[in-house]
Amino acid sequence: MSRLFLFVFTYIFLSPLYSQTIFTPADALKVVSIRNVRISPNGEYVAGITNKSTANRLDVDHFRFRDPNYVRPFTGQIVLYKTADGTKKQIGKPGHVSNPVWSPNSDQLAFFEWHDGKCAIYTYNLTNGNLNIVPIGNEVALVGTSELIWFPDGLSLIARIRTDDWLDKTTEMYKEATEGPITVYNAEEPFLKWDAISNQNNKAKVVRIQVDNGEITSLLPEGIYQNLTLDDEAEFLAYQVRNPQKTSYNRRTGNTYTWTVQSLTENKESRTLVDTMDQSRNLKWTKDRSWIAWSDSGHVFVQSVETEDPIKLTDGANELVENGDTTVVKFSVDRWNKDGTQLIARSSEGLWLIDRVTRTVERFITIPEENERSVNLQPVAWHPDGRFLYLSSSATKEWNRGLVQYDFELGEQKVLVLDGNLYRGWQLSEDGSQIVYSVSDGDHPDNLFTAKHDYSGVRQLSDLNPWITQKKMTRTELVTYLDSDGEELFGILYYPVDYNPNKKYPLVCEIYESFFNNGYRSSMNIIANAGYFGFRPSVRLETGRPGEAWIKGVTAGINKLIERGLIDPKKIGVHGVSYGGYATSLLIAQTNRFAAAINISGKTNVISFLGDSPRIGTRNYAAAEVGQDRLGETLWEAPMTYIDHSAVFFADKMNTPHLLLTGAGDWNVPAANTRELYYALRRLGKKVVWVDYQRAGHGGGWAGTHEDFHDQWNRVLSWYEEHFKEDKMKE
Asked: What is the CATH superfamily name and number for domain 472-724?
C-alpha cells in the first residue's frame, strides 16, 4: 500500500471533517455555557459558573411560579481559571449555585448554594484550598437571589435574610390566590392581588454575617432595598428603598424611592442622601464611595456623601454649535475615574470628559449623525491610572467587532482587537492588569479568554464544548436588504450543513424583532442540519401600527434571498417564540407565501391577553400601551388598533398550515390565549394543529421535560418536512 494511498485514506476517512455527525436536539442539551463571570481584583483568577443553559430550562414546575416554598432546579459548577497559565479548578460539586463574588484582597470567593430547598453561603479560600460553609444554621432563611458584599477586612459579608414570619405571610397570600377556596379581588385595594404577593416576596432584612462563625448582625429592618453600596472603610451602607404605593399601569408610577446613608459607626448619624421621589435614581459611585453622580433632565449632577447640596456640572455646557446649528445636549452619566475627580458622560453627539474639580466639560469622541454612523463605541472600563479608557467597538453595517483603547494623554484611539469574531462581557481587573472576555467565531459557543491590559499575552481559558468539533455546524452571513418602505435592514442567514451552491434549499425564518449580531444558536443549527437555510430577518416596528412591520420586513428579506438564487420560493417556513410566535400568526394573516408556520407560546388575541396572565400583574396592559406591543394607546382609546393586531380576528385570511405549541403552565402567555386561534381556525376549516404540553411553560415543549423538548423538535421538523414536500406554489 503506497504512502499516498495511506495519506488520502487517512485524510478523507479519518479526518474530523469526514467523521462529523449531525447536530441534534440532544446535542443542544449538551452545550455548556458560562455565566456570572468575575475577575479577581488582582487579575490573577477568573471565576464563573458553567452550566447547560438549555437543559436547565427543563423540568421546572411552572405552575408554582412565585410560590415562596419553591426553588426552581438548576445545575451548575463553580470554576476557577488562573489567568497566568489557564489552569482550571472546579470548586465543590455540581449543584444549584449562584453569585460568586471575590473578597477585596482576592484570596476568597463566596457564593450561594442550595440543598433541599435551603440556601447556604460557601467560601473558598485560595490560600489553603479549603471550601467551607458559613455556619448560620438551618433556621436562617437566606435570600439566595440577592447580592453578596464583602466587608473590606474579608471577614464578613452583607446578605439578605427573611424575617421569621415572612414565609407564613407569603404562603398564606399565595395559597389564597391559587387554592382559595374563595379568592376575592377588590378594586378598592391599592394593589392587584399578585402585585401584593410580589411586593411581599421582595421584602427582606439586610444583615452582616461573620464568615468563620456565622454570627449575624442586623443592619436594616425588613424592607425592599435596592443598590446596596458599602464604602471602602465600612463606615456606611448606602441603599435605595422602594416603597410600593399602588398598582401602576404605566411602569413609571406606583412607587416612591429614597436613597439613605446608614452609618455603621457609632460617631456618625444616618441620613437621607436623596429625598423621596417617584422615580428610581441610578447613582454612579466613585471607587471610595465618597461621591455620587447622576443625570436628571439631561444634566449631570454630583454630590459628596458628606453634604446635602448637589452640584450641576453641565450648567451652560449643554448647547453645542456645529455647522452653524445649535444642539441641546442631553447627558447621561457613565463612570468615574479611580480617584473620583473626573467622569465620563454620554450623549447622542459623543462621549464627554467632565472634571468635577475644574467643572469643565469636553467632548473627546464624536459620534456622527445617525445616517453617517458607522461604529458603536461603548465604554467598558477605565484603567485605574486614569490614562486609558476601554471601549467595545462594533461596526453598524458589518461584522467588525472588538475593543479599542482611548488614550487621554495623546487624545487618540488605538485598536486592540477588531475582526469578525463576536466579543462579549469585557471586564478589566480592579488593579488594571488583566482583561477577561468571551469570544466566539460567530458560529460556535463562546469561550473565555484573557489578555494583559494592553491586549498582549492573549490566552484561551475555557474549552467548554470540545466535542462540538465533531458536529456539523451552520455558518452565518450578514444579509442587508431594504424593507418595502426603503429602509435598510439586516438579517442573519444560517447556511445548511454540507451546503451545495448549485442547489436551492428550503428556508425557515425565525422571527422576533431586530437582529444583527450572529453567535451560536441551537435552533438554527438544528434547522441547518435538517437541510434548510435558516434566516433571522429584522423588522422596523412603529408605535401604533407594529403589525405591518413583519409583512414589510420579513418578506423583503426573503425576496433578497430568492434574488440571490439561494432558496426555493415554494418551500418557505416561519416560526417564532413568544413575541415571535405572535408575529408569526399576524404575518400569515397578511400573506399566503409560506408553506408552513409555527407559533410557539405567542398570543393571538391582544384584547383577552390584557388580563389573562394574573401572576405578572399589569404587565400585559403596560406591554400593549407603552411596551413591546407598541400599540401606544389604551383599548378604549383605540379599540380597532387592538383588533387589527389580534390574529384571531383574521383567522379567515389564514391559508398557511399552522402549528400552535404551548405550555399548560405558561404564566407569561397562557395557553388559553393561543387556544383561541386553534378554535377559530378549526371552525373555519383551516389546517391547524394545537399541541399543549401539560408539564411545560413559556416556550412550549422547549420549557417542559426532556421528553417534551424532543417531542416539540420532532413536531417542528416534521411540520416543515411535511409541507415542504408540497409542490404547489401558493398565490
From this structure: Alpha/Beta hydrolase fold, catalytic domain (3.40.50.1820)
